[in-house]
Design brief:
By secondary structure, the protein is an alpha/beta fold. The protein contains 7 helices and 8 strands; from the N terminus they run αβαβααββαβαββαβ. It has a domain of 146 residues. The radius of gyration is 19 Å and the shape is globular.
Length: 254
Amino acid sequence: MKGREIFAAWTPAGCIWSRWAKPVLFANLGPDMPAPPSLPDPKTADIGWAPGPERRFALVLDMPGPEAVAVGAALAVQRGYCPVPLFNASSGPDAVVDLLPMKLRLACFAAALTLARIPKDAPPAFLLDRRRFGRESSPLPGRFDNRWVVFPQDFPSANLLLSENIREVWLVQSSPGRPEHDLLHVLRRWQEAGIKLTGCDPYSGSQPSSLSVSAPNRFRALWYRAMVMTGFKRSGAGGFGAVVPMPSSSGGYG
């Protein structure tokens, strides 16, 4: 499959949520992508924690990227969720966030998603990469800085969710009681509109629990987006990603 075909597999035609999917990571995928070892089968992966789509819950999977891709594929194949990959970073040499494992999985799971019969009214499963802030690496000069964040505009509004009879959103992550700061701006808007928030740790064995989100700093500030963007590098091809410039140097004798 070519990159365009892989993107089409992850964005089911007719599903209204597909319009939020980010194409940047799919741009240079192709049939020559190697298959990663020991991939879970989307048909048999354990997603017993996930609610059935008939309950009309939206899911936000804030997991390490490769894991989010695998779980998103399983949710689509087994439960009929509409996967919405929101990965908004591009890849480059010596990147701060390693995107190759995600790209390999996006390509390898595309065939299974093509065969999945996802209803047009399927609830969404938004896929995020919890590594997006690049906390485990440093954007040193000469490196490709592809750290990224999400904004409320990257998600459907509360009014649209409610119009599709979605009145509850599950945040799926290993520490569901502690959403990342960028997600707080999204979740708080939904909460204020009357959408119930629930936290779910799929691997702890604990039951999902109610989640209450306080308004974060600079909530609804007009300049919030501009302020956040000053710390990240945008790619000319869309999304986030650019080489960190080397510091200029000057010499000479007075």
